[in-house]
Amino acid sequence: MKIFVNSYIYAYDRFFRMFDFFENKDSLIFILPKLWKSKGGKIRVVPTEKSKFKIIKTWAPFYHSHYPVVKGMLKGWMPFTGRILGQLARKGDVLLSSGEPNLFSTYLYSRLTKKMGLKHVFLTFQNIDYDKRLDGTKLKITNWLLRQNIKLSAGALCGTYQVYEVLKPYLDNRIKVAIIPQTGVDVDIFKPGVGSDFRQKFNLENKFIFLFAAVFDERKGVFATINAFKKTLNDIPTAHLVMIGMGKLWSQAKDLVNQLGITDKVTFIEWLPNHELAGIFSSVDVLVHPSEPYKGWEEQMGSTLLQASASGLPVIATNIGGIPESIINKKTGILVEPKDIQALYEAMVYLAQHLEIRVEFGRQGREHVLSKYSHKVVAGRLERFLNSL
């Protein structure tokens, strides 16, 4: 049995590395965008050739969620997938399209595979009930797509247990379901003790560093982080906040720092390649990631949180979405309620003042990732699931 994988997410090498841990690599055939764009087209990704894998590159015309009329319903769709499958696939093979079941692109793939006698698998990270996010015509269309994609597919991957609870009311006994994320964490890159000149480069020796590394938008608690950090300086005068990312709130974040009079205590860095975060995680003291609900969205799993934990870094995050599955409260980090600046401040001060707790959280955080979220663990579970269909 061959397994065809056509998801734009695997155009990124850091996500693709998971497949190095598949036992039967010869069974895999990847259909990937020959060019993928993200961050509004600012980042352009071309899949690299891999000697161990067969990769077919094709056209993916829709790369964001803001198109007129169709919005994000066709994001990641590759129109020539049918032609490629027609040449290479045989009845009983699997197509892992890794698309959400409420997208029209997923429906096109599920219909195509049903017609060809293939087994289709979709993936979902939707962790808010659909009827709490949508209403009217949008909800009717979404419910129809969900039921059609479940009816036409052989398998579904739910990124977290919370996601499974959202999908469960739509399921029937014809589809097989597993709780497996789309990719894992590269624990050989993200590990304690990675060498870095980060502190020297930014003149941060002898500072207690809180790190914020996320998109600068309404979902990530940008302003909550800054306001809580301001309060923290009263207790921890050697504290410094490093904020890494990009996004529409970048300028407002800088303005707030100026208004609070803490420009010498905050360092802004535009987005860095993912692999460079490993050295930074090993150089700072605490990751702060206070995600907030926004327009029917909550943090799904938090790959940055897991990478930080794999690096032995204690985490402060919020008790929403899939975060409680990634960060175990009072074991690998501290969870607070969204937008609770006082609680966030107290958690920051507590960790800054308790080295032994930071060390223990970091140790248990890495163990948690190694046991559940490493590339090796996720790949093994995914391969077994796909072969069981």
UniProtKB/TrEMBL annotation:
Q: Which Pfam families match?
A: Glycos_transf_1 (PF00534)
List, alphabetically, the Gene3D superfamilies matched: Glycogen Phosphorylase B
Which CDD domains does the record cross-reference, listed alphabetically? GT4_PimA-like
Q: Which SUPFAM superfamilies match?
A: UDP-Glycosyltransferase/glycogen phosphorylase (SSF53756)
Q: InterPro entries from the entry?
A: Glyco_trans_1
Record key words, sorted: Glycosyltransferase, Transferase
UniProt GO molecular function? glycosyltransferase activity
Domain of life from the UniProt record: Bacteria
Residue span(s) of domain Glycosyl transferase family: 198-367
* Protein name (database record): Glycosyl transferase family 1 domain-containing protein
